Automatic annotation (TrEMBL):
Family the UniProt entry places it in: Belongs to the AB hydrolase superfamily.
Every AB hydrolase-1 domain range: 62-149
Source species of the chain: Neogobius melanostomus (round goby)
Keyword Endoplasmic reticulum recorded: yes
Membrane topology according to the record: Multi-pass membrane protein
Gene3D superfamilies: alpha/beta hydrolase
Broad class of where this protein is predominantly found: endoplasmic reticulum
Alphabetical UniProt keywords: Endoplasmic reticulum, Hydrolase, Membrane, Signal, Transmembrane, Transmembrane helix
Recorded GO MF terms: monoacylglycerol lipase activity
Protein name: Mesoderm specific transcript
């Protein structure tokens, strides 16, 4: 009887082994349609997924959409069609480690690499000389700030007539940010994120133990109580994450939070010094970037930017929780300059 716990433990070993190798869920028809409508291009030996839709006739405007953590380009599904009615081209990609792109491991993921990835896609699509509008969210906000930093540096080089042969830098027309941890001092990561990014031994276990139930609880906490995803939408988010074993790279991807702190001066400096038209669309119920702490600091540091605060029940995913409000805010901004 003294060894009962050992017997139970031995019985659990094969069960745990099976659990840790549960295959990813089958993609829903909606996710399959999104995947089928896109393409892949090669970036530093990896396949990267993107969508490029041609829309409004008579317009030459281009908009590029940068998604957040831990989801994918599918985050833009609810505003995709309306954007194609306004823009000539609407482009979105899955960052390396996300969605339908490759998820190499081990790999040192960084914001700098993701920014280079966006620049490579722009070059791949022949848009190097085209002014582009960026819409970003969460993780994508920080990638956008690195792209903005490179844009500012490029403009300075042009003014001094040095390094004029640099290519691949985005030619910004505008930047619209939304609910992202721009400022480390007002950013409150979730407990699981902290454990995954800072505790390497524990993170290797947690990435394998994370399942749909844990994911749904965690992602549901950053949606408003009246704007929760449907069960099918939760599964689509989880399906995109689990594609190519994406759960196993979450800890590596989350190093972006530490990178934000390390490079705060670079990225916040770009935000505060740029002359590019800026707008912030903000869901005020966001527990990650809480109101009014976040928006007050944004107003203080970026006074030339306009901003829209959505209804009080909108949280961290405004483009999914209030797509019409998001679109109204964005179109008002894009028509203002």
């Amino acid at each position: 009887m003294k060894e009962w716990w050992l017997q139970v433990g031995l019985l659990c070993i094969p069960l745990v082994a099976v659990y840790l190798h549960i295959p990813p869920p089958q993609l829903s028809p909606a996710l399959n349609k999104w995947l089928s409508a896109g393409e892949h291009f090669h970036f530093r030996g990896h396949n990267v997924f993107y969508r490029d839709s041609f829309g409004a006739l008579g317009s030459s405007d281009v908009v590029i959409l940068l998604h957040g953590f831990p989801t994918s380009s599918y985050d833009w599904i609810k505003i995709w069609e309306p954007l194609t009615q306004r823009f000539h081209r609407v482009i979105a990609l899955d960052f390396l480690g996300f969605g339908f792109s490759d998820k190499p491991r081990p790999h040192k993921y960084s914001i700098f690499e993701q920014a280079s990835l966006v620049e490579a896609l722009v070059s791949h699509l022949g848009l190097g000389q085209q002014k582009v509008n960026l819409i970003s969210h969460d993780y994508g906000d920080t990638v956008a700030l690195e792209l903005l930093y490179s844009h500012i540096l490029f403009c300075l080089c042009r003014q001094t007539r040095s390094d004029q042969n640099r290519t691949g830098r985005l030619n910004f027309n505008s930047l619209c940010l939304s609910n992202g941890g721009l400022f480390p001092e007002t950013h409150h990561p979730r407990l699981l994120q902290i454990l995954l990014k800072d505790y390497s031994i524990l993170s290797s276990i947690l990435t394998r133990l994370t399942n749909h139930v844990i994911f749904q609880k965690g992602i549901g906490e950053v949606f408003g109580p009246y704007t929760q995803p449907t069960e099918a939408e939760f599964w689509d988010m989880w399906g995109g994450l689990r594609y190519n074993d994406g759960n196993l790279v979450l800890d590596s991807l989350l190093q972006y939070i530490n990178q934000r702190l390390k490079h705060r001066e670079r990225w916040v400096g770009a935000l505060t010094s740029t002359s590019v038209p800026l707008h912030m669309i903000y869901g005020p119920l966001d527990p990650v970037n809480p109101h009014p702490e976040f928006i007050r600091l944004y107003q203080k540091l970026v006074p030339r930017s306009t901003f829209t605060i959505l209804d009080e029940h909108i949280s961290h995913y405004p483009q999914l929780e209030d797509p019409q409000g998001f679109l109204n805010a964005y179109f008002n901004f894009i028509h203002s300059f």
